[in-house]
């Protein structure tokens, strides 16, 4: 059988180029720049994650929220959110295996092993009745949580799960409760093969419109922490 030139070329390329994580990373990196040019030019630029959280809480006027955090570890960010949003009607839900990452996480310069962030099952001790935790894989806990979900409060989702698979699962499952005005926070958005790619894929599949309210830029961080509002 005589193959078309383009077919032969594709087969050749698929055999010659290495199936490399680094190559994929380099391929995706310019997409972050394109994303910035399209959505980030008018956004507020902040120096740290805490500043971003404070900014978002002021942006929403400290109103009552349903805050869902995916990836809790020892609770640094959920604790901080419960401090800055002191509305009595706010509720804070933290989701994590509490046994660490379910898969290894790779980025260009290294990565983290499966099991990193293991707290040996311990959930953070936060003395605030508004805060509760769901222990287990998001894939196991989120469907049940959503079955009982009835809140009409503003939804703030904080995704700090590092992994593409976990992030994509949360976004696609959470789609039914994400509404106009809901806020999504990412913690490792510059990790282009993971949180960024998952968000791109989610938006492509569901036709989501959004604006970037703010992102961080400092010596240590460029687009790591991003706040996005659903339009
Ligand atoms: C970077 S840590 C979270 C850090 C935390 N937000 C903080 O402020 O310190 C990432 C967490 O995501 C959790 N995680 C990732 N994928 C998960 C999944 N599919 N189900 C449950 N937990 C997951 C890991 O167990 C890990 O504790």
UniProtKB/TrEMBL annotation:
Pfam families, A to Z: TylF
One of the GO BP terms on file: methylation
InterPro entries: SAM-dependent_MTases_sf (IPR029063), TylF_MeTrfase (IPR008884)
Gene Ontology MF, one: methyltransferase activity
Keyword field: Methyltransferase, Transferase
PANTHER family hit by this protein: MACROCIN O-METHYLTRANSFERASE
Protein's recorded name: Macrocin O-methyltransferase
Lineage summary: Bacteria, Pseudomonadati, Bacteroidota, Flavobacteriia, Flavobacteriales
């Amino acid at each position: 059988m005589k193959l078309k030139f383009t077919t032969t070329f594709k087969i050749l390329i698929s055999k010659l180029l290495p199936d490399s994580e680094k190559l994929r990373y380099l391929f995706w990196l310019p997409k972050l720049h394109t994303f910035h040019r399209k959505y980030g030019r008018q956004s507020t630029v902040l120096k740290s994650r805490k500043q971003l959280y404070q900014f978002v809480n002021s942006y929403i006027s400290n109103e009552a929220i349903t805050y869902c955090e995916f990836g809790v570890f020892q609770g640094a960010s959920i604790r901080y959110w419960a401090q800055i949003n002191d509305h009595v009607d706010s509720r804070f839900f933290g989701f994590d295996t509490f046994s660490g990452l379910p898969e290894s996480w790779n980025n260009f310069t290294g990565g983290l092993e499966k099991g990193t962030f293991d707290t040996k099952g311990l959930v953070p001790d936060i003395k605030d009745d508004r805060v509760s935790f769901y222990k287990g894989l998001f894939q196991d806990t989120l469907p049940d949580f959503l079955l009982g979900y009835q809140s009409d409060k503003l939804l703030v989702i904080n995704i700090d799960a590092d992994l593409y698979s976990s992030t994509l699962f949360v976004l696609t499952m959470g789609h039914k409760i994400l509404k106009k005005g809901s806020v999504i926070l990412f913690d490792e958005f510059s990790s282009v093969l993971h949180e960024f790619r998952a968000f791109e894929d989610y938006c492509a599949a569901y036709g989501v419109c959004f604006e970037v309210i703010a992102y961080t830029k400092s010596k240590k961080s460029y687009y790591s922490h991003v706040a996005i509002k659903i339009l």
